Amino acid sequence: MTGRRPILSTPLSSIIPANHRRVRAAALSAVAMTACASLAAGCGVIPGMSASTDDAIKVMTWAPQSTSATNKPGMPAMASAYVKWINSQGGINGRKLKLVTCNDHNSSVGAASCAQRAVDENVVAVVGSYSQFGDSYFAPLEGAAIPYIGGYGATNEEFTSPVSYPVNGGSLTLLSGLGEALADSCGPVTLVRPDSIAGDQLPQLLDSGLQAGGHAKAIDQLAAEDLTEYDQQSQKALENATSDSLKTGCVVPELGDRTATFMDNFQRARQDYPKVKTAAEVGSVDQTVINSTGGASGPYEGSYITGWYPVASDSRWDGMKKVISKEAFGDNRIDPADAGVQTTWIAYKVLTAALEKIGDGEVSADSVRRTLNNGLKVDTGGLTPSLSWPYQGKLAAAGFARLVNADVNVQTVKGGLLQSANKQALDMTKVLENADLS
After folding, report:
1. Which residues are paired to 101 by β-bridges?
2. DSSP of 122-181, one letter per residue?
3. N or C: which end of the chain has fewer CB within 10 A?
4. 48 to 15, 52, 63, 81, 99: CA distances (angstroms)
């Protein structure tokens, strides 16, 4: 995943005092309101849903679209398909959903404007969304006490904010899980990562999993953030990974949006070296990336990939696929194998469970938040463990009080498709509890 914020070394309180919420919200309010005017095209109500009755339940989904960096158009598209499907079934407890979408344009100002739009529209929740700028959008949401359900896991704030209800473990679990998965099968492991403050946190996560599996720490190889080619870095990584002639080494590129560029250079360079394995996590490489880089003939064939959920071919995704087929047939923004699409599906299942629990009662941001806080357990049909959000999660002592799903699924690329490489998910809770993330 790209644009990571540095991993926090000390726990945050899971309660934000009211005066603190007001200060944070006010600090961004003026900027956000101005930005929403200039980015008006980025905020909208899905066509065909504006004729809802006055008692419609208004929700929002946001994600970056049509930018030069990370784009997740499948997330608002999946939200639209879900809302249309729910409404075609008569809504939830007889009340229909009304979806507002927003494009955060991969900018802090855009993220703040989307959050302010959520406040202005009086939505009951922001659901299944993606943004790299948690420090911008959580201030307005916390000020209005609007729950943020099922974010992609792109920022640390998603695992600390009291209004956040994550459905996965973000990069924290993926990298530590990748390390544990590689511990048994790899010789020397080389991590290629950005020479940046955010990049400085990555070796600790990968090493936590490697060491839990009895493996030595990874070789930490830095690369400048602004590189446009990685010929030298590819050669150096291969030299490090092949330094032990008795066991096949592994290379783990964690370069965000530049991972594909590295792998293109790496694919050419590896022909001159002994065989090595490659590995990544779904935040950097998912099925969409694999498809766009050649599939079975591309650089990721044979790679290990860690993800939060079962592979797309698993029957547990059949419900989602039926909704996509019924409500979004031919919409090429929605790839059922995309982790963002999958996260949005699960997030809306959480919202549905909360609204069903509320029943005929008042539906508001406060009532949704209270329902989630009061011990609601959400069954996602085996796509995740049963989800609930206690006052302090198991990883509160590590600084991530809201992280409740630490499961990681190990996958491998075969024939250009992600396929399961382990019979059951790895629970990374204890690994992260014992990890040195300072």
Report:
1. 44, 61
2. T-SEEES---S-HHHHHHHHHHHT--EES--S-SGGGGT-TTEE-SS-HHHHHHHHHHHH
3. C
4. 39, 9, 20, 12, 10
Write out the two tokens for 400: 């991530």
pLDDT category of residue 215 using cuts at 50, 70 and 90: very high
The CA distance from 280 to 414, in Å, is 15
**What letter does residue 43 receive in the DSSP assignment?**
E
User: CB–CB of 161/139 below 8 Å?
Assistant: no
- Predicted local distance difference test score (pLDDT) of residue 159: 96
Identify the helix (H) or strand (E) that includes residue 316.
none
Is 4's pLDDT higher than 70?
no
Q: 173, 158 in Cβ contact below 8 A?
A: no
State residue 15's pLDDT score: 34
| Long-range contacts, stretch 266-269, CB < 8 angstroms, 24+ apart | 266/230, 266/234, 266/237, 266/238, 266/299, 267/298, 267/299, 268/234, 269/231, 269/234, 269/235, 269/238
| Mean pLDDT, residues 46-51 taken together | 43
Query: Tokens at residue 388, please?
Result: 């609930």
H helix and E strand count, the chain: 13, 14
* Residue 340 three-state SS: helix
Cα–Cα distances (Å) from 303 to 75, 140, 240, 295, in that order, read 26, 40, 18, 12
* 138 contacts: CB under 8 Å, gap ≥ 6: 24, 115, 148, 157, 161, 163, 164
Distance CA(278)–CA(303), nearest Å, equals 5
Q: Tell me which residue of 311, 317, 218, 199 sits closest to 256, measured CA to CA.
A: 199
Rounded Cα distance, 416 and 433, in Å: 35
Quickly count: other Cβ atoms within 10 Å of residue 16's Cβ: 19
The Cβ-side half-sphere exposure at 90, using a 13 Å CA radius, reads 2
